[in-house]
Amino acid sequence: MFIKNGWYAAAWADEIGHHLVQKWITGEPVVLYRTQAGEVVALHDRCPHRRASLSKGNLVGDDVQCAYHGITFDCQGNCVRVPGQEKVPSALSLRRYKVVEKWQWIWIWMGQPDEADESLLPAFEYNDSPGWKALGGCIPVKANYQLLTDNLLDLTHETYVHGKTIGNSAVAETPMEYQLNGHEVHVKRIMENTPPPPLFKRVRGFEGNIDRWQIIRFQAPAHISIDARGYPTGVDDLEQGMRWFSLNSLTPVDERNTLYFWTVTRCFDLENEELDEIIKDQILKTFMEDVEVIEAQQVLIETDDRAIPEVSIRADGGSISARRIVEKLAAQDADAGIT
Protein backbone atom coordinates (compact mmCIF):
# COMPACT_ATOMS: atom_id res chain seq x y z
CA MET A 1 0.00 0.00 0.00
CA PHE A 2 1.52 3.31 -1.12
CA ILE A 3 0.49 6.93 -0.99
CA LYS A 4 1.16 8.49 -4.41
CA ASN A 5 0.21 12.09 -3.62
CA GLY A 6 3.05 12.57 -1.15
CA TRP A 7 6.73 13.39 -0.94
CA TYR A 8 9.44 10.73 -0.73
CA ALA A 9 13.19 11.05 -0.40
CA ALA A 10 14.64 9.98 -3.75
CA ALA A 11 18.36 10.56 -3.18
CA TRP A 12 20.99 12.53 -1.33
CA ALA A 13 21.54 15.77 -3.25
CA ASP A 14 25.22 15.02 -3.86
CA GLU A 15 24.31 11.65 -5.38
CA ILE A 16 22.69 13.31 -8.40
CA GLY A 17 24.95 14.89 -11.01
CA HIS A 18 25.12 15.15 -14.80
CA HIS A 19 24.70 11.41 -15.16
CA LEU A 20 21.75 9.01 -15.09
CA VAL A 21 20.69 7.38 -11.80
CA GLN A 22 17.89 4.84 -11.48
CA LYS A 23 15.63 4.61 -8.43
CA TRP A 24 12.57 2.45 -7.88
CA ILE A 25 9.97 4.35 -5.84
CA THR A 26 6.48 3.04 -4.94
CA GLY A 27 6.90 0.32 -7.56
CA GLU A 28 7.82 2.73 -10.38
CA PRO A 29 11.23 3.06 -12.11
CA VAL A 30 12.54 6.63 -12.09
CA VAL A 31 15.64 8.08 -13.78
CA LEU A 32 17.20 11.14 -12.13
CA TYR A 33 19.91 13.51 -13.34
CA ARG A 34 20.98 17.14 -13.28
CA THR A 35 20.91 19.36 -16.31
CA GLN A 36 24.04 21.26 -17.24
CA ALA A 37 22.52 24.22 -15.34
CA GLY A 38 22.18 22.07 -12.20
CA GLU A 39 18.41 21.50 -12.22
CA VAL A 40 17.32 18.06 -10.99
CA VAL A 41 15.13 16.12 -13.44
CA ALA A 42 13.08 12.98 -12.70
CA LEU A 43 11.51 11.01 -15.56
CA HIS A 44 9.80 7.66 -15.86
CA ASP A 45 12.62 5.18 -16.49
CA ARG A 46 10.89 3.06 -19.11
CA CYS A 47 11.17 3.89 -22.80
CA PRO A 48 7.65 3.84 -24.29
CA HIS A 49 9.01 2.22 -27.47
CA ARG A 50 10.04 -1.21 -26.16
CA ARG A 51 10.24 -0.56 -22.40
CA ALA A 52 14.03 -0.45 -22.20
CA SER A 53 15.58 1.21 -19.14
CA LEU A 54 16.52 4.79 -20.03
CA SER A 55 18.92 4.96 -17.10
CA LYS A 56 21.10 2.50 -19.04
CA GLY A 57 21.34 5.08 -21.84
CA ASN A 58 23.27 8.31 -22.28
CA LEU A 59 22.92 12.01 -21.69
CA VAL A 60 23.24 14.05 -24.88
CA GLY A 61 23.43 17.57 -23.53
CA ASP A 62 20.37 17.64 -21.27
CA ASP A 63 18.49 14.99 -23.27
CA VAL A 64 18.21 11.29 -22.45
CA GLN A 65 19.05 8.88 -25.25
CA CYS A 66 17.79 5.31 -25.01
CA ALA A 67 20.64 2.83 -25.28
CA TYR A 68 18.48 0.34 -27.20
CA HIS A 69 17.25 2.22 -30.29
CA GLY A 70 18.57 5.76 -29.76
CA ILE A 71 15.20 7.41 -29.21
CA THR A 72 15.85 10.68 -27.37
CA PHE A 73 13.79 12.65 -24.85
CA ASP A 74 14.27 16.16 -23.48
CA CYS A 75 14.18 17.03 -19.79
CA GLN A 76 10.41 17.64 -19.99
CA GLY A 77 9.87 14.07 -21.19
CA ASN A 78 9.11 15.04 -24.78
CA CYS A 79 10.54 12.87 -27.55
CA VAL A 80 12.86 15.01 -29.69
CA ARG A 81 14.40 12.39 -31.99
CA VAL A 82 13.58 9.02 -33.50
CA PRO A 83 16.47 7.70 -35.61
CA GLY A 84 15.45 7.01 -39.20
CA GLN A 85 12.20 9.01 -39.23
CA GLU A 86 11.17 12.63 -39.14
CA LYS A 87 7.73 12.42 -37.54
CA VAL A 88 7.59 11.65 -33.81
CA PRO A 89 4.51 9.69 -32.64
CA SER A 90 2.46 11.78 -30.23
CA ALA A 91 2.35 8.94 -27.68
CA LEU A 92 6.14 8.76 -27.54
CA SER A 93 6.67 10.77 -24.34
CA LEU A 94 7.69 10.26 -20.73
CA ARG A 95 6.11 11.20 -17.46
CA ARG A 96 8.06 13.88 -15.60
CA TYR A 97 7.84 13.88 -11.81
CA LYS A 98 7.85 16.93 -9.57
CA VAL A 99 11.08 17.15 -7.55
CA VAL A 100 12.41 19.54 -4.91
CA GLU A 101 15.97 19.82 -3.63
CA LYS A 102 15.91 20.73 0.05
CA TRP A 103 17.73 19.87 3.29
CA GLN A 104 20.45 17.87 1.50
CA TRP A 105 17.95 15.47 -0.07
CA ILE A 106 16.07 15.25 -3.36
CA TRP A 107 12.32 14.89 -2.76
CA ILE A 108 9.95 13.42 -5.34
CA TRP A 109 6.15 13.60 -5.63
CA MET A 110 4.91 10.35 -7.18
CA GLY A 111 1.31 11.49 -7.71
CA GLN A 112 -0.33 14.24 -9.74
CA PRO A 113 2.30 16.97 -10.39
CA ASP A 114 -0.23 19.80 -10.15
CA GLU A 115 -1.10 18.67 -6.62
CA ALA A 116 2.50 18.70 -5.37
CA ASP A 117 2.49 20.93 -2.31
CA GLU A 118 5.87 21.89 -0.86
CA SER A 119 4.24 22.76 2.46
CA LEU A 120 3.74 18.99 2.90
CA LEU A 121 7.47 18.31 2.92
CA PRO A 122 8.56 16.92 6.29
CA ALA A 123 9.98 19.33 8.85
CA PHE A 124 13.60 18.23 8.39
CA GLU A 125 15.19 21.67 8.46
CA TYR A 126 17.79 20.51 11.00
CA ASN A 127 19.44 18.54 8.18
CA ASP A 128 20.76 21.86 6.89
CA SER A 129 20.58 24.50 9.61
CA PRO A 130 23.29 26.80 11.05
CA GLY A 131 24.47 25.55 14.41
CA TRP A 132 23.64 21.93 13.59
CA LYS A 133 25.74 19.16 12.04
CA ALA A 134 24.13 16.29 10.12
CA LEU A 135 25.66 12.84 9.59
CA GLY A 136 23.79 10.23 7.64
CA GLY A 137 23.35 7.75 4.84
CA CYS A 138 20.89 5.47 3.06
CA ILE A 139 20.32 1.79 3.88
CA PRO A 140 18.54 -0.62 1.51
CA VAL A 141 16.21 -2.78 3.60
CA LYS A 142 14.51 -5.99 2.42
CA ALA A 143 11.22 -5.27 4.14
CA ASN A 144 8.04 -3.25 3.79
CA TYR A 145 8.45 0.40 4.74
CA GLN A 146 5.62 0.27 7.29
CA LEU A 147 7.59 -2.20 9.42
CA LEU A 148 10.25 0.49 9.73
CA THR A 149 7.60 3.08 10.59
CA ASP A 150 6.39 0.77 13.38
CA ASN A 151 9.96 0.43 14.62
CA LEU A 152 10.60 4.16 14.81
CA LEU A 153 7.29 5.07 16.45
CA ASP A 154 7.69 2.57 19.29
CA LEU A 155 11.19 2.81 20.74
CA THR A 156 10.49 0.23 23.45
CA HIS A 157 12.68 -2.13 21.44
CA GLU A 158 15.76 -0.03 22.31
CA THR A 159 15.89 -1.85 25.64
CA TYR A 160 16.23 -5.26 23.99
CA VAL A 161 17.81 -4.60 20.59
CA HIS A 162 20.16 -1.66 21.27
CA GLY A 163 21.50 -2.31 24.76
CA LYS A 164 25.09 -1.58 23.65
CA THR A 165 24.30 1.86 22.21
CA ILE A 166 21.10 3.83 22.91
CA GLY A 167 19.00 1.42 24.97
CA ASN A 168 18.57 0.52 28.63
CA SER A 169 15.77 -0.73 30.86
CA ALA A 170 14.32 2.75 31.41
CA VAL A 171 12.98 2.92 27.85
CA ALA A 172 10.75 -0.14 28.12
CA GLU A 173 9.71 0.65 31.69
CA THR A 174 8.54 4.21 30.93
CA PRO A 175 5.06 4.59 29.40
CA MET A 176 4.70 6.85 26.38
CA GLU A 177 1.95 9.22 25.28
CA TYR A 178 0.71 9.73 21.74
CA GLN A 179 -1.72 12.03 19.98
CA LEU A 180 -3.03 12.63 16.47
CA ASN A 181 -2.69 15.95 14.69
CA GLY A 182 -4.22 15.80 11.23
CA HIS A 183 -1.97 13.56 9.12
CA GLU A 184 0.65 13.49 11.85
CA VAL A 185 1.24 11.34 14.93
CA HIS A 186 3.16 12.67 17.92
CA VAL A 187 4.68 10.32 20.50
CA LYS A 188 6.44 11.38 23.71
CA ARG A 189 8.38 9.46 26.35
CA ILE A 190 10.13 11.24 29.23
CA MET A 191 12.46 9.20 31.46
CA GLU A 192 13.47 10.96 34.67
CA ASN A 193 16.49 10.25 36.85
CA THR A 194 17.64 7.26 34.82
CA PRO A 195 21.10 5.91 33.97
CA PRO A 196 22.33 7.17 30.58
CA PRO A 197 22.61 4.57 27.81
CA PRO A 198 26.15 3.64 26.67
CA LEU A 199 26.31 5.97 23.66
CA PHE A 200 25.08 8.97 25.65
CA LYS A 201 27.83 8.38 28.22
CA ARG A 202 30.43 8.09 25.47
CA VAL A 203 29.26 11.18 23.61
CA ARG A 204 28.74 13.57 26.54
CA GLY A 205 30.58 11.95 29.42
CA PHE A 206 27.60 11.75 31.75
CA GLU A 207 28.65 10.43 35.17
CA GLY A 208 25.37 10.39 37.03
CA ASN A 209 21.74 9.88 36.15
CA ILE A 210 19.99 11.92 33.48
CA ASP A 211 16.53 13.10 32.46
CA ARG A 212 15.95 11.74 28.98
CA TRP A 213 13.39 12.83 26.39
CA GLN A 214 12.15 11.14 23.22
CA ILE A 215 9.76 13.29 21.18
CA ILE A 216 8.70 11.60 17.94
CA ARG A 217 6.81 13.13 15.02
CA PHE A 218 5.38 11.07 12.15
CA GLN A 219 4.43 12.88 8.95
CA ALA A 220 2.77 11.02 6.09
CA PRO A 221 3.66 9.13 4.01
CA ALA A 222 6.68 7.85 5.98
CA HIS A 223 8.80 10.53 7.63
CA ILE A 224 9.78 10.25 11.29
CA SER A 225 11.78 12.76 13.31
CA ILE A 226 13.01 11.90 16.80
CA ASP A 227 14.02 14.75 19.09
CA ALA A 228 16.35 13.02 21.56
CA ARG A 229 17.57 14.94 24.62
CA GLY A 230 19.56 14.11 27.73
CA TYR A 231 20.38 16.37 30.69
CA PRO A 232 21.90 15.70 34.11
CA THR A 233 18.95 15.02 36.39
CA GLY A 234 17.24 18.24 37.44
CA VAL A 235 19.31 20.39 35.06
CA ASP A 236 17.80 22.01 31.93
CA ASP A 237 21.05 23.30 30.45
CA LEU A 238 22.13 22.21 26.98
CA GLU A 239 25.74 23.12 27.78
CA GLN A 240 25.73 20.22 30.24
CA GLY A 241 23.50 17.95 28.20
CA MET A 242 22.90 16.81 24.66
CA ARG A 243 20.29 17.10 21.98
CA TRP A 244 20.10 15.60 18.54
CA PHE A 245 17.48 14.87 15.94
CA SER A 246 17.22 11.49 14.25
CA LEU A 247 15.58 12.30 10.90
CA ASN A 248 14.27 9.31 8.97
CA SER A 249 12.58 9.09 5.59
CA LEU A 250 11.35 5.68 4.44
CA THR A 251 11.00 5.37 0.69
CA PRO A 252 9.15 2.25 -0.50
CA VAL A 253 10.89 0.63 -3.45
CA ASP A 254 8.06 -1.89 -3.67
CA GLU A 255 5.96 -3.85 -1.18
CA ARG A 256 8.97 -5.65 0.31
CA ASN A 257 11.93 -3.30 -0.17
CA THR A 258 12.69 0.11 1.27
CA LEU A 259 15.32 2.83 0.95
CA TYR A 260 15.96 4.04 4.50
CA PHE A 261 17.30 7.62 4.38
CA TRP A 262 18.61 8.78 7.75
CA THR A 263 20.55 11.50 9.48
CA VAL A 264 21.54 12.27 13.03
CA THR A 265 22.02 16.00 13.43
CA ARG A 266 23.40 17.55 16.62
CA CYS A 267 23.93 21.01 18.07
CA PHE A 268 26.99 20.37 20.28
CA ASP A 269 30.73 19.88 19.76
CA LEU A 270 30.31 20.54 16.05
CA GLU A 271 34.02 20.71 15.15
CA ASN A 272 34.91 17.39 16.79
CA GLU A 273 35.62 15.08 13.84
CA GLU A 274 36.46 12.17 16.14
CA LEU A 275 32.99 12.53 17.63
CA ASP A 276 31.55 12.54 14.10
CA GLU A 277 33.04 9.11 13.47
CA ILE A 278 31.89 7.72 16.83
CA ILE A 279 28.31 8.87 16.31
CA LYS A 280 28.08 7.73 12.70
CA ASP A 281 29.61 4.33 13.49
CA GLN A 282 27.44 3.67 16.54
CA ILE A 283 24.20 4.92 14.99
CA LEU A 284 24.79 2.85 11.87
CA LYS A 285 25.39 -0.22 14.04
CA THR A 286 22.15 0.58 15.85
CA PHE A 287 20.19 0.82 12.61
CA MET A 288 21.68 -2.40 11.29
CA GLU A 289 20.46 -4.14 14.44
CA ASP A 290 16.99 -2.92 13.50
CA VAL A 291 17.43 -4.09 9.92
CA GLU A 292 18.35 -7.60 11.06
CA VAL A 293 15.17 -7.85 13.16
CA ILE A 294 12.88 -6.30 10.54
CA GLU A 295 14.14 -8.29 7.55
CA ALA A 296 13.59 -11.50 9.52
CA GLN A 297 10.13 -10.22 10.46
CA GLN A 298 9.34 -9.64 6.76
CA VAL A 299 10.25 -13.25 5.91
CA LEU A 300 8.00 -14.61 8.65
CA ILE A 301 5.10 -12.40 7.54
CA GLU A 302 5.42 -13.62 3.95
CA THR A 303 5.62 -17.29 4.94
CA ASP A 304 2.76 -17.26 7.47
CA ASP A 305 0.36 -19.52 5.56
CA ARG A 306 -2.10 -19.54 8.44
CA ALA A 307 -2.34 -15.73 8.51
CA ILE A 308 -2.37 -15.67 12.30
CA PRO A 309 -3.67 -12.24 13.40
CA GLU A 310 -1.32 -9.95 15.29
CA VAL A 311 -2.20 -8.93 18.85
CA SER A 312 -1.50 -5.28 19.60
CA ILE A 313 -0.53 -3.72 22.92
CA ARG A 314 -0.72 -0.21 24.36
CA ALA A 315 2.70 0.80 23.00
CA ASP A 316 1.42 0.21 19.45
CA GLY A 317 -0.92 3.19 19.60
CA GLY A 318 1.35 5.50 17.62
CA SER A 319 2.19 3.03 14.88
CA ILE A 320 -1.44 1.90 14.50
CA SER A 321 -2.47 5.55 14.12
CA ALA A 322 0.19 6.07 11.44
CA ARG A 323 -1.02 3.03 9.51
CA ARG A 324 -4.59 4.33 9.59
CA ILE A 325 -3.42 7.66 8.16
CA VAL A 326 -1.60 5.87 5.33
CA GLU A 327 -4.68 3.72 4.63
CA LYS A 328 -6.90 6.81 4.47
CA LEU A 329 -4.59 8.75 2.13
CA ALA A 330 -3.98 5.72 -0.10
CA ALA A 331 -7.77 5.26 -0.38
CA GLN A 332 -8.10 8.92 -1.40
CA ASP A 333 -5.51 8.34 -4.14
CA ALA A 334 -7.45 5.30 -5.34
CA ASP A 335 -10.73 7.23 -5.37
CA ALA A 336 -9.04 9.89 -7.51
CA GLY A 337 -7.78 7.25 -9.92
CA ILE A 338 -4.13 7.61 -8.85
CA THR A 339 -2.60 4.13 -8.74
UniProtKB/TrEMBL annotation:
Keywords: 2Fe-2S, Iron, Iron-sulfur, Metal-binding, Oxidoreductase. Residues 7-108 form the Rieske domain. This is Rieske domain-containing protein. InterPro entries: Cholesterol_7-desaturase (IPR050584), Rieske_2Fe-2S (IPR017941), Rieske_2Fe-2S_sf (IPR036922), VanA_C_cat (IPR044043). Pfam families: Rieske, VanA_C. Gene3D superfamilies: Naphthalene 1,2-dioxygenase Alpha Subunit, Chain A, domain 1 (3.90.380.10), Rieske [2Fe-2S] iron-sulphur domain (2.102.10.10). The lineage of its organism: Bacteria, Pseudomonadati, Pseudomonadota, Betaproteobacteria, Burkholderiales. It comes from Neopusillimonas maritima. GO terms for molecular function: 2 iron, 2 sulfur cluster binding; metal ion binding; oxidoreductase activity. It comes from the Bacteria.
